Amino acid sequence: MKIAVIGIGAVGSVIARELKMLDYDTVLFGRQPKSGFTISEAGEEHSYPYRIETMDAYQGGSFDVVFVAVKATALRGISQTFHHLINEETEVILCENGMGYEHYFDRPVPAVVYISGQKKNDRIEHFQDATLLIEDTSRPNIDRLITALDKHPETQLEIKKSEDFERIRYEKLLINLGINSVTALSKNTSKIFELESVAQLTRAILEEGVAIVNSEREIVSPEFVDRAMAIYKNYNPEMGTSMYYDVMADVKTEYAYIQKHLHDRKGPLETPVLDVIVTLLEAYQYKRGY
Ligand code: NDP
User: Fold this and answer.
1) How many A from CA of 71 to the centre of ligand 1?
2) What ipTM describes this predicted complex?
3) Residue at 56 is within a domain
4) Is the beta carbon of 6 within 6 A of some atom in ligand 1?
C-alpha cells in the first residue's frame, strides 16, 4: 500500500511519524523539500530523518490513501495540483478543522481531528492525542490501513469510524466557532473565560451557531451549549487556539471555513453576534496580502 501525507505541520507530522512505523511506502510532502522534522512531547525532543519532498517534483505515481493536513485555506490549491498523486480508488482524508471545502475534491473523506499540537518554526510541539474520526462508510483502502494500525503494537495513530459522524463534526465546528472567535479577536488565551462577560458572549455565539446548524432538522442538541461552555472553562488558561495563534503570527485564519461557513447558511435567522464576529474576522485579513 502507498500512502502520502501532504502538509508536515502540527497535525501532519504526527500522522506521518506514526504511519512511517508501518510496513508501507509512505511519502511526505511539504511546501519545501526538507531532510526531516522534530517533534517535542512532554519536554522531550525527537528528530525524525524522513525526507519531505514537494508534490510538483514527485514522479512516483499515485497513492492508495492521501492524508491532507494543511490549513483549510490551502486546500483549494492542493486540490488543483495533486492530480498526479491520485487515481479513482485513492482515498483522500481531509484532516482540517471547519467545513465547506469538501467540494474542492471528488471523493473526500473529511476527518474530525483529535491531534493537538503547534508548529513553531521548524519544531512541532505535540500536546496530546493522535486520533482521526471519519464517517462509518466502506472505504476499502482506509479499512486495510485501520487494520494495519490496530495490529501494530506501537503506533499511536487511531482512525475511528463513527455512525454519529455528522453530529460530532458539527459539534467540533461549534467548539471552534466559540473559542476561536473570542481568543482570536481578543488576542488572548483561554484565561478569558474567567471573565463573565466573555462567557456570556461565547454562549451567545454558540446559541446562534446551534440555531444555524439545526435550522432544517435537529443535528446538535441545544444542551450542547452548556457542554461547550464547561469544556472551555476546563481548558488550561494559557491554551490558545489555532485562530489565536494565526492572529498572533499575523497570518490568514481559517475563518471562511468556520465562522463564515455558518454565517453563509443563516438564512432568515437573526444572528447579531455572529454578524459582528464575521465582519471583524473579515476585516482582520482585508488587504493584508495573505
Ligand atoms: P500547520 O500550519 O502546523 O501545518 C500545516 C502544514 O502544511 C505546514 O507545514 C505547511 O508548510 C504545509 N503546507 C501548506 N501549504 C502546503 C502545500 N501547498 N503543500 C504542502 N504542504 C503545505 O497547521 P496544523 O497542522 O496546525 O493544522 C492543519 C489543520 O488541522 C488545520 O485545519 C487545523 O485547523 C486543524 N487542526 C489543528 C489542530 C492543532 O492542534 N494544531 C487540532 C485540530 C485540528 P509551511 O510551514 O511551509 O507553510
Assistant:
1) 4
2) 0.99
3) yes
4) yes
